[in-house]
Amino acid sequence: MTNHIYLVAHRGEPDSYPENSLASFSHALDSGATHIETDVQVTADNIVVLSHDENLNRLTGKNISITKSNFALFKDIPAGFSSHFSGTFNHSRIASLKQFSDLLTKWPEVICFIEIKQESLSCFGNRVVDLVMEALEEIKEQCVLISFNYDALVYARDKYPQSIGWVLPDWSDSNQVKADRLSPEYLFVDTDFFPQNKNDLWQGPWQWVAYTINTVEQIKTYADLGVNIIETNRLSQLQREYGNTIINAKQ
User: Fold this and answer.
1) Is residue 248 part of a domain?
2) How many domains in the chain?
3) Using CA atoms, how far apart are residues 41 and 175, in angstroms rounded to an integer?
4) Rounded percentage of the chain residues whose pLDDT exceeds 90
5) Model confidence pLDDT, tens digit, residues 99-146
6) Cβ atoms of 90 and 78 closer than 8 Å
7) How many CA atoms lie within 13 A of 77 on its CB side?
8) What's the burial of 157, exposed, middle or buried (CB within 10 Å: 0-12/13-18/19+)?
């Protein structure tokens, strides 16, 4: 078993707060998160915002396309994921990546995984990478650009001195060849197809990240496989359940 498990706050603390909200990340950070992850999309007027979905219906209850709308259209709309949290978080709003960056300046030791979503890349191409890097200027040294989109990561690697992580679309020989060629700092793998034999893991310069894991039993399983970075929706709860003997949280 690996000595330390680093839990990544996946979209903050989405079991307790609206996902990707500043409140969600603030709670995770206050709980001792050393790693966090967020998703980004780009608006029609080139503002990078925190959202997993390209359409805001799930978070706001309104049929709004991010890539086809200006930020001003929805920046003041309640985004409290009311179908999940009722009206508890009606004060929540969709945050910009710049607002997220301002929050993270207070947490300079925290590693931030920034996932660039395919919908925005399909609309705007690699310009999305440039916009993300502009928004992250103040905290870029603590950030890692991640994406399913291999070509966007190649572009980022060629243009910026930035750590990157590839989110594998599937486990295949062809993707192993591509991983070797890209040599990312991190490889993210869905537990649905993560190899269950340690000897099957590809050898390379990267660190493995497994997602999304929400139980102590799963943590132990992947620790035994040698994985020490795990994305979870339940960071603070798992820290309480598992303790700090293995999980490396800030004291």
Assistant:
1) no
2) 1
3) 25
4) 92
5) 999 999 999 999 999 999 999 999 999 999 999 999 999 999 999 999
6) yes
7) 19
8) middle
75 within some domain: no
Alpha-carbon gap, residue 206 to 198, rounded angstroms = 15
Q: What number is the average pLDDT over the span 150-158?
A: 98
Phi-psi region of 230 (alpha: psi -120 to 50; beta: other; left: phi over 0): beta
Question: Quick check: is 59 in a domain?
Answer: no
C-alpha distances in angstroms, 229 versus 83, 140, 210? Answer: 31, 20, 7
Report the b/e string of 101-124 with b at 16+ CB within 10 A.
beebeebeebbbbbbbbebbbebb
- Spatial separation of the C-alpha atoms in residues 65 and 55, rounded to whole Å: 5
Tokens of 219: 């943590």
Q: Is 149 helix (H, G, I), strand (E, B) or coil?
A: coil
Q: The domain containing residue 166 runs over which residues?
A: 6-54+96-242
